[in-house]
Automatic annotation (TrEMBL):
One Pfam family in the UniProt entry: Usp
Lineage start: Archaea, Methanobacteriati, Methanobacteriota, Stenosarchaea group, Halobacteria
Biased composition (Acidic residues): 12-22
Record field: compositional bias (Basic and acidic residues): 1-11
Residue ranges occupied by any UspA domain in the UniProt entry: 200-267
InterPro entries, A to Z: UspA
Sequence segments annotated as region (Disordered): 1-43, 267-291
Protein name: Universal stress protein
């Protein structure tokens, strides 16, 4: 049995941005989380008072995952979170429990968080950090899960991104297309895709379900979104962990905004140096910004 507990967030420390007026209810699953960087929990945020159900395609994607299901309600600046909790908590908690049950019935392990906050982005970042989430899902509607697009940048992203995809989809009848934006070096592109294939098969994905695709484009975000229209979901690496946009980096946020299906963004490890895992860098992106 899991237990509910309520707590007020502590006053913010100088080096940590927190919302001192956030009121939170948490339900934590008793099972231990894996320490592997590609098999930790996935953050699934939901506007809890506006979400009726998690679509079947999203449930299928998360059926083998450890999930932190974050139900949040963003408040007007003048509304105290405590007041909102008194007004909405029972309704919100019931809805959150229903969403969690749908994931658990599919096989997922679920921890729930209920938050009333003035700052959505800050709250999502904080919860992702506190729970050591390896990825964040934008749960756009998806009625089915038959094929997944996985844009890769380079060797650094392969282990994390393809590894998580393998953990989620091993044994399922879901095809995976590894996608790479070529930068004039066909051998390097082929090496990235081949490494991704090996990671997937090593995690138990049927080799017959794995395809690869390369493309050259000066408008990479547009290219990814255009390609994604053929698929039910997208899994990609975080673009810029230093400048978050709704937990996602800039490129991932743009893809999530334009693609109508679910987008799973694999977070960058804190010990990684060098440029962020943006599958579009260093291809010129100026033409994308005109859309």
């Amino acid at each position: 049995m899991t237990a509910h507990d309520r707590e007020h967030e502590p006053e913010p420390e100088p080096e940590i941005e927190t919302d001192p007026e956030t009121t939170e209810t948490g339900t934590e699953n008793e099972s231990e989380r894996s320490g592997d960087t590609d098999s930790g929990p996935i953050l699934v945020p939901n506007r809890i008072l506006e979400t009726d159900a998690i679509e079947p395609g999203v449930v299928s994607l998360l059926s083998r995952a450890s999930v932190v299901l974050l139900g949040y309600h963003e408040l007007p600046e003048q509304t105290p979170p405590g007041q909102a909790r008194l007004q909405f908590e029972d309704r919100a908690q019931n809805r959150l429990d229903e969403l969690a049950e749908s994931l658990e019935l599919a096989g997922a392990t679920v921890e729930t968080r209920l938050v009333f906050t003035h700052d959505r982005e800050q709250t999502l970042n904080r919860v992702a950090d506190e729970t050591n989430c390896v990825a964040t899902l934008l749960p756009n509607p998806s009625m089915r899960l038959e094929d997944v697009l996985v844009p890769l940048r380079g060797e650094r992203s392969v282990e994390r991104v393809a590894g998580l995809v393998g953990n989620l989809l091993a044994g399922l009848d879901v095809s995976v297309t590894l996608y790479h934006l070529e930068r004039g070096d066909e051998r390097a592109s082929a090496a990235v895709l081949e490494r991704g294939r090996k990671v997937l098969t090593g995690r138990g994905v049927d080799p017959e379900l794995i395809e690869t695709r390369t493309e050259t484009s000066r408008t990479p975000v547009r290219a990814i979104v255009r390609t994604a229209e053929e698929f039910d979901a997208v899994v990609m690496g975080e673009s810029d962990p230093g400048v978050m946009t709704f937990v996602f980096g800039q490129t991932a946020a743009e893809v999530a905004e334009r693609f109508r299906g679910p987008v799973l963004v694999v977070r960058r490890r804190g010990d990684e140096d060098g440029p962020a895992d943006d599958p579009t860098v260093p291809v010129e992106r100026s033409e994308d910004s005109t859309e």
